[in-house]
Write a structure and sequence with these properties.
mainly alpha; two-stranded antiparallel sheet; 2 domains; 79% helix
Protein backbone atom coordinates (compact mmCIF):
# COMPACT_ATOMS: atom_id res chain seq x y z
CA UNK A 1 0.00 0.00 0.00
CA UNK A 2 1.36 3.41 -0.96
CA UNK A 3 1.85 6.22 1.53
CA UNK A 4 -0.97 8.25 0.04
CA UNK A 5 -3.33 5.24 0.17
CA UNK A 6 -2.46 4.75 3.82
CA UNK A 7 -3.05 8.44 4.47
CA UNK A 8 -6.37 8.27 2.60
CA UNK A 9 -7.51 5.43 4.90
CA UNK A 10 -6.26 7.35 7.93
CA UNK A 11 -8.08 10.54 6.92
CA UNK A 12 -11.31 8.67 6.30
CA UNK A 13 -11.02 6.87 9.68
CA UNK A 14 -10.27 10.09 11.58
CA UNK A 15 -13.24 11.86 9.98
CA UNK A 16 -15.48 8.84 10.54
CA UNK A 17 -14.51 8.67 14.23
CA UNK A 18 -14.93 12.42 14.60
CA UNK A 19 -18.42 12.39 13.09
CA UNK A 20 -19.39 9.34 15.14
CA UNK A 21 -18.41 11.06 18.40
CA UNK A 22 -20.09 14.33 17.39
CA UNK A 23 -23.33 12.53 16.55
CA UNK A 24 -23.13 10.52 19.78
CA UNK A 25 -22.70 13.67 21.88
CA UNK A 26 -25.62 15.36 20.10
CA UNK A 27 -27.75 12.32 20.94
CA UNK A 28 -26.54 12.56 24.56
CA UNK A 29 -27.65 16.22 24.64
CA UNK A 30 -31.11 15.21 23.43
CA UNK A 31 -31.28 12.48 26.10
CA UNK A 32 -30.11 14.87 28.83
CA UNK A 33 -32.75 17.42 27.83
CA UNK A 34 -35.38 14.68 27.96
CA UNK A 35 -34.12 13.62 31.42
CA UNK A 36 -34.29 17.22 32.65
CA UNK A 37 -37.85 17.55 31.39
CA UNK A 38 -38.79 14.22 32.97
CA UNK A 39 -37.22 15.19 36.28
CA UNK A 40 -39.06 18.52 36.28
CA UNK A 41 -42.35 16.70 35.72
CA UNK A 42 -41.60 14.36 38.65
CA UNK A 43 -40.76 17.37 40.83
CA UNK A 44 -44.15 18.88 39.96
CA UNK A 45 -45.95 15.63 40.72
CA UNK A 46 -44.06 15.25 44.03
CA UNK A 47 -44.90 18.85 44.95
CA UNK A 48 -48.61 18.25 44.38
CA UNK A 49 -48.42 14.94 46.25
CA UNK A 50 -46.43 16.50 49.07
CA UNK A 51 -43.74 13.80 48.78
CA UNK A 52 -40.39 15.30 49.82
CA UNK A 53 -38.39 12.11 49.15
CA UNK A 54 -39.71 11.85 45.58
CA UNK A 55 -39.13 15.57 45.13
CA UNK A 56 -35.55 15.31 46.42
CA UNK A 57 -34.79 12.35 44.16
CA UNK A 58 -36.31 14.11 41.12
CA UNK A 59 -34.30 17.25 41.92
CA UNK A 60 -31.09 15.21 42.14
CA UNK A 61 -31.95 13.52 38.83
CA UNK A 62 -32.47 16.92 37.28
CA UNK A 63 -29.12 18.18 38.61
CA UNK A 64 -27.29 15.12 37.27
CA UNK A 65 -28.98 15.56 33.89
CA UNK A 66 -28.09 19.29 33.84
CA UNK A 67 -24.46 18.47 34.70
CA UNK A 68 -24.39 15.86 31.93
CA UNK A 69 -25.97 18.34 29.50
CA UNK A 70 -23.34 20.95 30.36
CA UNK A 71 -20.57 18.41 29.82
CA UNK A 72 -21.99 17.17 26.49
CA UNK A 73 -22.50 20.73 25.24
CA UNK A 74 -18.91 21.61 26.16
CA UNK A 75 -17.65 18.56 24.28
CA UNK A 76 -19.70 19.44 21.19
CA UNK A 77 -18.28 22.96 21.32
CA UNK A 78 -14.77 21.47 21.45
CA UNK A 79 -15.50 19.17 18.52
CA UNK A 80 -16.96 21.99 16.42
CA UNK A 81 -13.96 24.19 17.18
CA UNK A 82 -10.83 24.37 15.05
CA UNK A 83 -8.63 22.11 17.17
CA UNK A 84 -6.73 19.72 14.86
CA UNK A 85 -7.49 16.00 15.03
CA UNK A 86 -3.75 15.24 14.82
CA UNK A 87 -0.63 16.96 16.10
CA UNK A 88 1.53 19.26 13.95
CA UNK A 89 4.34 16.67 14.11
CA UNK A 90 2.07 13.87 12.86
CA UNK A 91 0.60 16.09 10.14
CA UNK A 92 4.05 17.15 8.89
CA UNK A 93 5.42 13.61 8.99
CA UNK A 94 2.48 12.14 7.05
CA UNK A 95 2.59 14.93 4.47
CA UNK A 96 6.34 14.58 4.03
CA UNK A 97 6.07 10.80 3.53
CA UNK A 98 3.43 11.17 0.82
CA UNK A 99 5.33 13.95 -0.98
CA UNK A 100 8.62 12.04 -0.90
CA UNK A 101 6.90 9.00 -2.36
CA UNK A 102 5.22 11.11 -5.06
CA UNK A 103 8.55 12.77 -5.85
CA UNK A 104 10.16 9.36 -6.39
CA UNK A 105 7.21 8.21 -8.51
CA UNK A 106 7.42 11.36 -10.66
CA UNK A 107 11.15 10.87 -11.17
CA UNK A 108 10.61 7.29 -12.37
CA UNK A 109 7.79 8.41 -14.68
CA UNK A 110 9.95 11.27 -16.01
CA UNK A 111 12.63 8.70 -16.86
CA UNK A 112 10.02 6.73 -18.81
CA UNK A 113 8.83 9.87 -20.61
CA UNK A 114 12.40 10.84 -21.56
CA UNK A 115 13.03 7.31 -22.85
CA UNK A 116 9.83 7.43 -24.90
CA UNK A 117 10.75 10.85 -26.26
CA UNK A 118 14.13 9.50 -27.35
CA UNK A 119 12.30 6.75 -29.22
CA UNK A 120 10.05 9.38 -30.80
CA UNK A 121 13.13 11.41 -31.78
CA UNK A 122 14.68 8.37 -33.50
CA UNK A 123 11.42 7.63 -35.32
CA UNK A 124 11.14 11.25 -36.47
CA UNK A 125 14.78 11.37 -37.61
CA UNK A 126 14.32 8.18 -39.63
CA UNK A 127 11.01 9.44 -41.02
CA UNK A 128 12.46 12.81 -42.01
CA UNK A 129 15.59 11.29 -43.59
CA UNK A 130 13.48 8.90 -45.66
CA UNK A 131 11.20 11.71 -46.82
CA UNK A 132 14.17 13.94 -47.74
CA UNK A 133 15.89 11.14 -49.66
CA UNK A 134 12.65 10.21 -51.44
CA UNK A 135 11.96 13.85 -52.32
CA UNK A 136 15.40 14.14 -53.94
CA UNK A 137 14.51 11.16 -56.11
CA UNK A 138 11.06 12.59 -56.93
CA UNK A 139 12.52 15.97 -57.94
CA UNK A 140 15.23 14.36 -60.07
CA UNK A 141 12.56 12.21 -61.65
CA UNK A 142 10.51 15.36 -62.36
CA UNK A 143 13.36 17.42 -63.78
CA UNK A 144 15.82 14.96 -65.29
CA UNK A 145 13.47 12.29 -66.59
CA UNK A 146 10.08 13.93 -67.07
CA UNK A 147 11.81 17.18 -68.07
CA UNK A 148 9.44 19.29 -66.07
CA UNK A 149 11.22 22.50 -65.03
CA UNK A 150 10.72 26.21 -64.83
CA UNK A 151 9.75 27.54 -68.25
CA UNK A 152 9.86 30.95 -69.91
CA UNK A 153 6.45 31.82 -71.25
CA UNK A 154 5.12 34.81 -73.14
CA UNK A 155 2.41 36.84 -71.49
CA UNK A 156 -0.56 38.40 -73.27
CA UNK A 157 1.37 41.70 -73.22
CA UNK A 158 4.21 40.17 -75.12
CA UNK A 159 6.82 40.03 -72.35
CA UNK A 160 8.33 36.87 -70.97
CA UNK A 161 8.01 35.49 -67.48
CA UNK A 162 9.19 32.35 -65.72
CA UNK A 163 6.47 29.89 -64.85
CA UNK A 164 7.83 27.97 -61.89
CA UNK A 165 6.88 24.36 -61.75
CA UNK A 166 5.66 22.92 -58.50
CA UNK A 167 8.22 20.52 -57.19
CA UNK A 168 7.17 16.90 -57.24
CA UNK A 169 7.67 16.06 -53.59
CA UNK A 170 6.00 14.65 -50.51
CA UNK A 171 5.18 17.39 -48.01
CA UNK A 172 3.91 15.75 -44.82
CA UNK A 173 6.43 16.84 -42.18
CA UNK A 174 3.91 16.72 -39.31
CA UNK A 175 6.10 14.37 -37.24
CA UNK A 176 9.04 16.76 -37.54
CA UNK A 177 6.84 19.66 -36.45
CA UNK A 178 5.47 17.60 -33.57
CA UNK A 179 8.95 16.70 -32.37
CA UNK A 180 9.99 20.34 -32.69
CA UNK A 181 7.14 21.39 -30.41
CA UNK A 182 8.16 18.74 -27.86
CA UNK A 183 11.93 19.21 -27.94
CA UNK A 184 11.73 23.03 -27.84
CA UNK A 185 9.34 22.99 -24.91
CA UNK A 186 10.78 24.42 -21.68
CA UNK A 187 8.94 21.85 -19.55
CA UNK A 188 10.47 18.99 -21.55
CA UNK A 189 13.92 20.55 -21.18
CA UNK A 190 13.43 20.83 -17.41
CA UNK A 191 12.29 17.20 -17.19
CA UNK A 192 15.39 16.05 -19.10
CA UNK A 193 17.63 18.09 -16.79
CA UNK A 194 15.94 16.68 -13.69
CA UNK A 195 16.47 13.11 -14.91
CA UNK A 196 20.08 13.78 -15.91
CA UNK A 197 20.83 15.36 -12.52
CA UNK A 198 19.18 12.49 -10.61
CA UNK A 199 21.12 9.91 -12.61
CA UNK A 200 24.35 11.83 -12.06
CA UNK A 201 23.73 11.89 -8.30
CA UNK A 202 23.33 8.11 -8.08
Amino acid sequence: MTAYEKLKDKVEKLIEDFNAELNARIEDIDKANAQISGAENKMSVATVAGDPLAYSKAKQDKQRAEDALEMYQARVKQLKGDKPLVSREEYDADSREVKEELSQMCLEDKRKVVALCKQIEEIVKRNNKTIEDANEVLIRYQRDVFHDWDRKEKSSKGDYYVRPMAENKFEDFSLVWLWGRISDNKIYEDICKTVEQADADK
